[in-house]
Structures are given as structure tokens and as C-alpha cells.
TrEMBL record:
<dbReference type="InterPro" id="IPR019250">
    <property type="entry name" value="DUF2227_metal-bd"/>
</dbReference>
<keyword id="KW-0472">Membrane</keyword>
<feature type="transmembrane region" description="Helical">
    <location>
        <begin position="31"/>
        <end position="48"/>
    </location>
</feature>
<dbReference type="Pfam" id="PF09988">
    <property type="entry name" value="DUF2227"/>
</dbReference>
<feature type="transmembrane region" description="Helical">
    <location>
        <begin position="92"/>
        <end position="110"/>
    </location>
</feature>
<keyword id="KW-1133">Transmembrane helix</keyword>
<protein>
    <recommendedName>
        <fullName>Metal-binding protein</fullName>
    </recommendedName>
</protein>
<feature type="transmembrane region" description="Helical">
    <location>
        <begin position="6"/>
        <end position="24"/>
    </location>
</feature>
<keyword id="KW-0812">Transmembrane</keyword>
Length: 198
């Protein structure tokens, strides 16, 4: 499995290719920009390794605590975190839910303090209209996030496959694939975090 620094390099090296291919396909600078932004976010900050104490997790700085429940509920490299499309969709759903709850709390506090008057029905309608009107932009951003995550989990899978072939040999590896896709699973290693003494 590549290190965080290797994943970062892969993201940065693939970006020009992605931008060129996207612009060539869409002929749209805005869509290309959104896909490229999503790709960089997905590769550097919003990727599959948010399920562990990783470089991506640490980049959130003071806000990394947002991802603690996500980490506690998912096993590293599970299908829900590293699965194609489902991993990105789950992270977007998790983050959007968190932002929604915080926004509602802030708006309620503002409304109760008398500093803000809200029509909740028109607010929900406004958000729904924004999503409908800018559907293509939201899809482009999601695709960019998925491409960024894809660069991550494809390099993980490639690295793991290479290590298995190196350890077992190509014949044994292919034989394992031929046996109904059953490959020897690696042992799960539980690592304890070092605790600083006072």
C-alpha cells in the first residue's frame, strides 16, 4: 500500500491528464474546473483514508474531529470507505449531514436570539432549487471527488496485488484467482498508538 506522500504525488501527476481529458470531452471550462477541484480535494483531503489517522485526516487541522465518528464506524479499506462510488457517496453524505446539522443549529440559535427571522419552508425550497438548477455542477464536483478517490484506491489495489505476487509468485497468485477468486487474506495487525508520558 503506497504511503500518503506517494498518493499525493499520484494525485498531482494525474491532474494535468484529467484536466486535459475533461476539457477535451466537455469543452467547458467551468465543468473542467469543478472536476479538477473535486479531484484535488478527493485525492488530498476527502479521500478513502479518512477512515484512519492519515495525512488526509491530518490536513483537516482543527476540524479533523469531524471525521472521528466516521473512523470509529468503518474498518480501514472496507468497501464502504474504499469502494468505487459508494465510498465517495458515503463521505459526501456524512459531510453534508454534518454541515446540515451545524447549519440548522446556528440558524435556530440566531432565530431564538431574535437576530434572524427565517421562513424554513422557503429556505428548504431555495436549497432544493439550487441543487436542481446547478445539477451538472454538483455532478461534476462529485465525479472529481470520485476520480480523486479512485486514484487512491487503484494505487492501493495495485500495490497490494504487486506485493502478493512478489510474496506468492505469479503462479500461486493466479491459482488463487482461479479458485473462485479466493485469495489468501492478509492477517489483520492491531497497532497500539503510543501514549506520551507526562
Amino acid at each position: 500500500m503506497p504511503s500518503g506522500r506517494t498518493h499525493d504525488r499520484i494525485t498531482i501527476w494525474v491532474l494535468p491528464v484529467l484536466v486535459g481529458a475533461t476539457f477535451w470531452q466537455t469543452r467547458n471550462g467551468n465543468i473542467t474546473l469543478l472536476i479538477a477541484t473535486g479531484f484535488m480535494l478527493g485525492g488530498l483531503m476527502f479521500g478513502p483514508d479518512l477512515d484512519i489517522y492519515s495525512v488526509q485526516y491530518q490536513r483537516w487541522g482543527w476540524f479533523k474531529w469531524i471525521w472521528l465518528p466516521y473512523q470509529k464506524s468503518l474498518r480501514h479499506r472496507s468497501f464502504l470507505s474504499h469502494g468505487p462510488v459508494i465510498g465517495t457517496a458515503l463521505r459526501v453524505l456524512y459531510f453534508t449531514s454534518f454541515i446540515s446539522v451545524v447549519t440548522v443549529i446556528v440558524l435556530l440559535i440566531g432565530e431564538k436570539s431574535g437576530n434572524l427571522t427565517l421562513n424554513w419552508h422557503s429556505l428548504v425550497d431555495s436549497i432544493a432549487n439550487t441543487v436542481v438548477i446547478h445539477k451538472a455542477e454538483f455532478i461534476a464536483l462529485f465525479l472529481g471527488l470520485e476520480f480523486g478517490a479512485m486514484s487512491h484506491y487503484l494505487s492501493d489495489w495495485t500495490g497490494s496485488t504487486y506485493k502478493r505476487i512478489k510474496k506468492q509468485g505469479i503462479r500461486q497468485y493466479l491459482k488463487g484467482l482461479a479458485n473462485n477468486g479466493k485469495i489468501k487474506k492478509r492477517k489483520r495487525v492491531v497497532r497500539k498508538r503510543k501514549v506520551k508520558s507526562k
